[in-house]
Amino acid sequence: MKTLQQIRRELHQIPETGFQEFKTQAYLLEEIHALNQQRLTIVKWRTGIVVHVKGLNPNKTIGWRTDMDGLPISEQTSLSFQSTHEGYMHACGHDIHMTVALGLLRQINQSPINDSMVFLFQPAEEGPGGALPMREWLKKHHQDLLPDVILAFHVAPEYPVGTIATRPGLLFANTSELFIDLHGVEGHAAFPHRTKDMTIAAASLLMQLQTIVSRSINPLDSAVVTIGKMTSGTVQNIISGHARLEGTIRTMDAKTMLTVKNRIEALCRATEIAFECKVEIDYGSGYYQVFNTPEITSEFLSFAKLDASTVSIQCDAAMTGEDFGFFLQEIPGLLFWAGVDSSYGLHNAKLNPDEKVIDYLVPFAESYIRSL
What we know:
Elements: H1 4-12, H2 22-33, E1 40-45, E2 48-53, E3 61-67, H3 94-110, E4 116-122, H4 131-141, E5 149-156, E6 163-166, E7 169-172, E8 174-183, E9 187-188, H5 198-209, H6 211-216, E10 223-232, E11 238-239, E12 242-251, H7 254-275, E13 278-282, E14 286-287, E15 290-292, H8 294-306, E16 311-314, H9 325-328, E17 333-339, H10 356-371
Parallel strand pairs: 3-4, 3-5, 5-17, 6-16
Antiparallel strand pairs: 1-2, 2-4, 6-17, 7-15, 8-12, 8-13, 8-14, 9-11, 10-12
Helix pairs in contact: 1-3, 3-10, 5-7
């Protein structure tokens, strides 16, 4: 049987983007099928996998979710096991997440607990979002596989291995992608009066978008509207007939997200009038806030404090996003950070999590689950 380190390194070499995790799914299935199948039920969903482990005397089902996808980032780690998929990398630690899930599955399958467990290997966390459709598929077709409580973790480069951080209530923000296309009339730079210039329209709209948080959101609330990319035009002497803004929205409250989107739409309608153009908005992937069940999370932190190998921290909420929030929207549970001691952050081409987190986290998670 492969070591967990070997599994992590082999998964690290085959990163795939959302709903394209075909090699990853096949690899995981091979490892899962190598286990004793007596207590296992295995169901595939798109490029994801659900594994049910029957308990000895089940009263409830405990869920453990892991994400599977990588990112379109060219790896710059120089590791001996770096990505073999050019232009793609596990730059968010999902290879670590999957390996811990497999290690935990091995342990629970080998030494079953009274309750049943379900392991959700979920695709497309980075986009377009796999948690919501996976949850709805389970509700419609596999009610028996829905957990009564659900757990997950995310690697945290800023903490050392052995550190657990989370908080009751809101942990991660509501998030939404933002894509705005402006369509006008292209023309020669010498005849601007015959055109509808979308460079100017986009620049004006970009500046107006920056007033949303400062003038439409309660200062005691929290929100972010960031435009990270603006494209317009082709050459220096042609007035652009098309421009595109790409960005992100983050809010700490679901109602605030609606307020921000309403203001964006109002400003886009005003831009259409002011610049005689057509403006289209696409919100892309949107994730619901990660809201940890307070009682479960408080008990989890209390458990972690009693563990000699663990440093537990009640951390602040963050503007990061995670589609695990869609599971927590309907199922009690929690998400926590686990330290991996890397000098490079998430989504960085040089991210190199400390693999010792695997040998630490599998027994810690197993011990916690047995305590439930």
